[in-house]
Amino acid sequence: MNQRRILLALFMIYFVFAILLNSVGTVILQVIHTYGVDKGAASVLEGFKDLPIAIVSFFVASTLPRFGYKKAMLVALAIVTIATLAMPLIPAFATAKLLFLCVGVAFALVKVSVYSTIGLVARDRKHHAGITNMLEGFFMVGVLSAYWIFGFFIDADHPASTSWLNVYWLLSVLCAATFVLVLATTFDEAGAAPPDSRGPAADFLQMLRLFVRPLVYVFVLTAFLSVLVEQAIGSWLPTFNNEILMLPATMSVQVTSIFAGCLAVGRLLAGVVMRRLNWYPVLTVCMLAMGATVLLTLPLTHGVNHDPNVTWSTAPVAAFLFPLIGLFMAPIYPGINSVMLSSLPRHQHAPMTGLLVIFSALGGTTGSLITGYVFGHVNGHFAFYLTLVPIVLMVGSLYAFKRQVEKTAGAAWTARPHELI
Asked: Cα torsion at 99, 105, 107, 109 (round to 10°)?
């Protein structure tokens, strides 16, 4: 019974953070309208979210077992509860920056704690994989929910309205309720601390030693590029829908849920396909399909006329076609993670997780900043065409990664496919 309660707490935590983390694209669109912020300035919200994830993950991964996973989750939930309350109470662009700074710090604590707790409650590897897959599926439910929850509070007739900030009253209640759930749940963390640990300094050095291996830095580059493209599109798609496809603000956010849905479906399908086919050709085809989607659908976004009475049935076809890129993008990040983990002995998975989180966060920030700058100083079409550059680079880095994996014979164990999604 207690195990079910622990899992419920983990699921609720991930649901809350899925909404908060993936609201950045919507908030970028709204701060542009509400506070008159230009696109380049608004793009820094991605950095306020991702950089704290990277920095905090780097330093806390080795100390959380001693601090306690439950305590870390409670601290994280307390931080985001206060931050979400500040949004409607102190409406300002600076408050939005503070919110995502807090979300980034809190998620760094949550990611390490949640995945470590799964290892404590899982009976075996199959059970662990089942819990992890369900958790990631629930995370995508949170991502999809974010677009519709925020869309409900946006006043499409008055873009500068602050009515969208009322969503944070709901989110603060959700954060507080999850805090109470975790507080009332008993966690057995007896097996959390590694028995052979030589302290934080030694764990820190172990992470740095990993990075000098060609296999690792080629993998990190591929993961960096993958997240760069995903965040470049995901963070700016609501603004693209609004300014290029001339959709109302509410519909711009809701249509973006198609992209999130495609990511969810793509990951589920990839779990079936990659059990039967070799990972390298599957991921290469996905990358080429991403490039083809950009080249074939973006031309359809030119010359769209403003229609004040636009509906879902009359919206430009590109609004529904371009988000399909998520189907091909979805398998890449979890796919390379799975291959990477199965190429390392199990005791090196924790420091590898630290490196992955750091460079994933840096990739997300880079993608959003570059896209926001180009969107504001050139145009939205060129900003999205520019994603072809990292896609081409990914094809090359994936080949180099494959060559390094082939040199690494006798993997210590088969990694869980979705462990680090």
From this structure: -150
Structural tokens at position 373: 């700058």
Report how far residue 361's alpha carbon sits from residue 230's, in angstroms, rounded to the nearest whole number: 12
323-354 pLDDT tens trace: 999 999 988 887 787 677 667 665 565 567 66
For the segment 248-260, the average pLDDT, to the nearest whole number, is 84
CA–CA separation, 290 and 298 (whole Å): 12
Q: Is the pLDDT of residue 130 over 60?
A: no
d(CA 122, CA 139): 19
Is the separation of the CB atoms in 103 and 17 below 8 Å?
Answer: yes
List, for residues 100-120, the tens digit of each pLDDT value.
Answer: 999 999 998 888 788 777 767
Q: Is 57 exposed, middle or buried (0-12, 13-18, 19+ CB in 10 A)?
A: buried
Question: 3-state class of 190 per DSSP?
Answer: coil
Which residue type, as a one-letter code, is found at position 360? S
**For position 415, what pLDDT does the model report?**
40
Alpha-helical segments (H) within 122-213: 125-153, 167-183, 200-211
Q: How far apart are the first and last CA of the chain?
A: 27
Q: What is the CA radius of gyration of the chain?
A: 21
Long-range contacts of 285-289 (CB under 8 A, 24+ apart): 286/328, 286/329, 286/331, 286/332, 287/328, 287/332, 287/391, 287/394, 287/395, 287/398, 288/395, 289/328
